[in-house]
């Protein structure tokens, strides 16, 4: 039976989950995969974490050099998070001829060009299924299932924290601030929630996924990013009435005019399969030119779901002798030939506080029409009249963002017409 | 650049779709995967099909021997359907050292033991992603993503024809017979629809998927099978009122008492992700001990979605030098050590025409309670009173099928109590 030695760098939530899965399933993997996978080494500054998991003293390494020189170690699992020292450790492992499995989206997003180059040079495997959307098998689906397609678009709910917050705001009708506090108390959000709520985490993942999908490097810097901190309960409630739910979406499109990559909150119409993805669940909705629509749904985070992706990569790595790498030139920056679209095309929800006077709607309509924006739906909330104003909700047909910005600017600039309260993209 | 020659056996819907994908993407695959994939041979009795696709005469083989002896052919794609002559042809190809990609669920279900043995012996790849759920990447997910999990259960909507029929019955409130006729006219159902509507097609796929998921052979003969031909519009409508939709489900469970495999219509509560899978879309909802819940959704049939799965297998095959086979002893019959559960555990919807008299509900309730069945919901449809009877709808908590059968038999046997109109399993 093939023996495979694993080292785990970092015994936090995901590292601990991975260790438990490997230990509890050791006999199962011998039986089903004919591989004996043993954790031979762990690297963790807080030694008590290792001891609490029942790891014997002699398997706790004091530094990365010890892990790299351990002949029992074949695969190094990096689950530390952050760029350093993870980057240095992974490079050291690859240079020592160890294959690497990582869950580190920031590292892989920012340094995959460097890691992959080193992996190739040393003929090692570099696996990163766990870096995006936890237990949801989206990376291997792109690499090994949908790879015969030209991927036209992908739309994902790929951050658990923000989806938890938005679901809670929607269901309980409480403000962002209140839900965030609760989420922090429950451990669903970090003390500093910036990476999640400002969309950085989702953008790292979108960079990784869209590079794979579109076969060209999409660096983080090319991704438009907008967080959820300004989302109001008013808009969520109006959206509900109009049959839509608010989600933080990661959108990648590859069209005639180029590639469009963006992370932002958006309304999703109830009929769309993504509308039902709630709480900390995640999903990626992919459209390929042959396969049409595919959606992959599951837990995007957590010790065991992310551990499941890591262990999947470990077993895959153990069962293959040679490894495949990127299908594109994995450089640090985008290929100069790649065109990026910045004037997005989408439907829009626009909420105005319109002056409650005859002729206002007609003037607003004419501004939209002048900017070539076709309005699909107008709702005037007459029972919310106050101080001479009335809420006016408009949903446009698909249009260009620049046109919307122009129209909205013109409306806002005219006294006695309307105040622009919010502009939110809509996905149907 | 690596050159890969493909032969396609059968140029029906899927074969034609596969050919088109390969031709249209040839330059794309050279660029992205550094493989030049060319269709070198086709085998199709109706020669006009090949000519209509623009395939030149010299690539149309007259028999399987010609395909097998063609040195340009590396991979044989079998998309003929049915057992013979597909089985003979696939065995011949494997014996000639060609890897095989098949979309044939009946063949793979019934003869994978034989095909795999031959593939192993000849060190060929045997790929069958397209045999189950078209473009939905469920087989590779089980093999290469979730393979570190003990899969606890899978529930799938894995037959497009029946899902189209049931969705149409639900939305338009028309009878099974009417919808079937329309589906046949539109080409969504075969002239002889037995394989789809009686659940054979779903059972072939469940046999394949559950064998992979549970790492033991689950032959077709072990699968309980019930079709949708007796589903009434009354029950679909009552289900709607109770917040449930009717689906043909394929269910596999691996629990303490053994393995449970069954294909039958069932009500799915609206909150379940499978409830939103409509028309010809398919989905598989999988629960693993580490990954928790995962759902894979997409088009389960059609020329291009199924072609996408085939081409995915072709590229995968071309990029790997050695191949993995089943993680279990792939014999014809089930391992004698495998226990199968036949007394299913589920919630149940029971519709009675109850005598419209005082005391009837109490007597019925006592029969359920005597059989250890806990009732979760009772609805008496008073506005549907007729001829001294009133429709009575009961939904039970999870219980054993044998208990339900006993209770229902007892209720039916008592004159002046109730007529049992229908008994349908419920998934929440």
How do the strands and helices of this protein lay out in sequence?
The structure is a homodimer of 428-residue chains.
Chain A: E1 2-9, H1 13-24, H2 26-33, E2 35-43, H3 47-52, E3 60-61, H4 64-68, E4 75-78, H5 86-95, E5 99-102, H6 105-121, E6 126-127, H7 138-145, E7 151-157, H8 160-172, H9 176-185, H10 194-197, H11 200-214, E8 224-225, H12 233-241, E9 244-255, E10 258-269, E11 281-288, E12 292-299, H13 303-319, E13 345-355, H14 360-370, E14 375-380, E15 389-396, E16 399-400, H15 401-413, E17 418-427
Parallel strand pairs in A: 1-2, 1-4, 2-3, 4-5, 5-6, 8-10, 10-17
Antiparallel strand pairs in A: 7-9, 7-11, 9-10, 11-12, 13-15, 13-16, 13-17, 14-15
Helix pairs in contact in A: 1-13, 5-6, 6-11, 8-9, 14-15
Task: Describe the protein.
- Two copies of one chain form a homodimer.
- Chain A has 428 residues and is α/β, with parallel strands linked by helices.
- In chain A, 37% of the residues lie in helices and 27% in strands.
- Chain A is built from 15 helices and 17 strands.
- Chain A has helices at 13-24, 26-33, 47-52, 64-68, 86-95, 105-121, 138-145, 160-172, 176-185, 194-197, 200-214, 233-241, 303-319, 360-370, 401-413, and strands spanning 2-9, 35-43, 60-61, 75-78, 99-102, 126-127, 151-157, 224-225, 244-255, 258-269, 281-288, 292-299, 345-355, 375-380, 389-396, 399-400, 418-427.
- In chain A, the strands form two sheets. In chain A, strands 7, 8, 9, 10, 11, 12, 13, 14, 15, 16 and 17 form an eleven-stranded mixed beta sheet that branches. The first copy, chain A, has a six-stranded parallel beta sheet with strand order 3-2-1-4-5-6, sandwiched between helices.
- In chain A, β5 (99-102), α6 and β6 (126-127) form a beta-alpha-beta unit.
- The longest helix of chain A has 17 residues, at 105-121.
- The radius of gyration of chain A is 24 Å and the shape is elongated.
- The N and C termini of chain A lie far apart (52 Å).
- The mean pLDDT of chain A is 96.
- β12 of chain A pairs antiparallel with β12 (292-299) of chain B, so a sheet runs across the interface.
């Amino acid at each position: 039976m093939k023996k495979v030695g694993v080292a785990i760098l970092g015994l936090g939530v995901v590292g601990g989950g991975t260790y438990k899965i490997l230990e509890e399933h050791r006999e199962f993997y011998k039986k089903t995969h004919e591989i004996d996978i043993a954790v031979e080494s762990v690297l963790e500054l807080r030694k008590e974490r290792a001891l609490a998991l029942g790891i014997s003293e002699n398997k706790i390494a004091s530094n990365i050099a010890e892990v790299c020189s351990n002949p029992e170690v074949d695969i190094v699992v990096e689950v530390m998070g952050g760029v350093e020292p993870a980057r240095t450790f992974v490079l050291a492992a690859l240079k020592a001829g160890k294959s690497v499995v990582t869950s580190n989206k920031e590292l892989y997003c920012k340094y995959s060009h460097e890691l992959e180059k080193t992996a190739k040079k040393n003929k090692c495997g570099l696996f990163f299924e766990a870096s995006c959307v936890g237990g949801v098998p989206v990376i291997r689906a792109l690499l090994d299932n949908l790879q015969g397609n030209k991927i036209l678009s992908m739309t994902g709910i790929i951050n658990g924290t923000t989806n938890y917050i938005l679901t809670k705001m929607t269901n309980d009708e409480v403000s962002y601030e209140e839900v965030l506090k609760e989420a922090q108390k429950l451990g669903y959000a970090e003390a500093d929630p910036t990476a999640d709520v400002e969309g950085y985490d989702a953008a790292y993942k979108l960079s990784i996924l869209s590079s794979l999908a579109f076969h060209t490097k999409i660096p983080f810097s090319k991704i438009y990013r907008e967080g959820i901190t300004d989302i109001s309960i008013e808009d969520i409630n109006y959206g509900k009435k109009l049959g839509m739910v608010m989600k933080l979406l990661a959108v990648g499109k590859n069209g005639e005019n180029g590639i469009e990559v963006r992370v932002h909150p958006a309304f999703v119409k109830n009929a769309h399969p993504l509308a039902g993805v709630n709480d900390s669940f995640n999903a990626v909705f992919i459209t390929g030119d042959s396969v049409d629509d595919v959606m992959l749904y599951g837990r995007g985070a957590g010790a065991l779901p992310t551990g499941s992706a890591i262990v999947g990569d470990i077993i895959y790595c153990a069962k293959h002798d040679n490894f495949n790498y990127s299908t594109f030139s994995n450089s640090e920056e985008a290929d100069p030939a790649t065109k990026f679209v910045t004037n997005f095309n989408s439907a829009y929800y626009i909420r105005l506080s319109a002056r409650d006077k005859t002729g206002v709607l007609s003037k607003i309509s004419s501004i939209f029409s002048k900017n070539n924006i076709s309005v699909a739906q107008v709702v005037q909330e007459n029972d919310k009249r106050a101080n001479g104003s009335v809420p006016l909700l408009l949903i446009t047909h698909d249009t260009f963002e620049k046109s919307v910005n122009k129209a909205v600017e013109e409306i806002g600039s005219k006294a006695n017409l309307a105040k622009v309260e919010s502009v939110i993209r809509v996905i149907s």
